[in-house]
Amino acid sequence: MPPTWIDTHCHLDAPEFAHDVDTVRAQARAAGVQHLVIPAVQVVHADAVRELAHRHGDSYALGIHPLYTPQAADDDVERLAQLLEQHSNDPHLVAIGEIGLDFFVPGLDAERQTRFYRAQLQLARRFNLPVILHVRRSADALLKGLREVPVQGGIAHAFNGSLQQARAFIALGFKLGFGGALTYERALQLRRLATELPIEALVLETDAPDMPPHWIYRTAAERAAGQPQGRNAPAELPRIAQVLAGLRGTQLEALAQHTRANALHALPRLQGRAE
Predict the structure, then answer these.
(1) Structure confidence by residue, pLDDT tens digits, 58-93
(2) Which of 73, 138, 158, 203 has the largest count of CB atoms under 10 Å?
(3) Distance CA 247, CA 213 (A)
(4) Is 87 left (phi over 0), alpha (psi -120 to 50) or beta?
(5) Is residue 94 within 8 Å of 58, Cβ to Cβ?
(6) Which residues pair with 167 in a beta bridge?
(7) Among 137, 180, 179, 127, which residue's Cα sits nearest to residue 155?
(8) Quick check: 260 and 25 in contact, CB under 8 A?
(9) How does pLDDT run across 240-265, given as a tens digit for each residue?
(10) Domains in the chain and their CATH numbers?
(11) Strand pairing partners for 204?
């Protein structure tokens, strides 16, 4: 029997999937992706991610992404709290997310990002939920927040920091998400990290439709020549996993078992539904 997988980060509500979302989910299931976690990026996305999770037997998270803090209303954290209260008994709701800090994209207000981040950590404490973190050139600042506002752990999504930073997240109860970025041969630091970390620290994700693996990505020159950019999808997860298994020199089935157990540990509400 082929291995089955949990995609711990998939934006199934993205506009890129609007015309064929049910087909995309069916293709993922046929490829062995048994379960998805669908994080929101804005409060207004809450209904969409919840509906998709219920329709397909998947899970969702609610949060305000740092890239969306410029357009977020000042009372959106309170609106988020109301939604979390309203759906606190929904077994499909597994985390606060996607939240965090992004110091890569220019023009974002770092103070505003930090205010939303810390307020959502407080919500994670209030509702006893793990968090799904956006980490982009912000690992140390995220860790500082977690030490000052401790939560029960969660997932550092698309992690690409140092080994020392990885160990710091792990010490705080986090698993680290790896996806399409590790399929690029030039991603030497990321590949080294994916092989040096203990297997107990890793979970798999696609971040679909973003973070395409190398077999989907098209360069600017290729796009200019008329080749369309490929769309990442959750069905790509098993092939991404094959790359990770090859890097680590481990059997695919063993990797599936470990990453599944890690996802259940990071997001306890998955237990009984994604096992």
Answers:
(1) 999 999 999 999 999 999 999 999 999 999 999 999
(2) 203
(3) 15
(4) alpha
(5) no
(6) none
(7) 179
(8) no
(9) 999 999 999 999 999 999 999 999 99
(10) 5-270 (3.20.20.140)
(11) 178
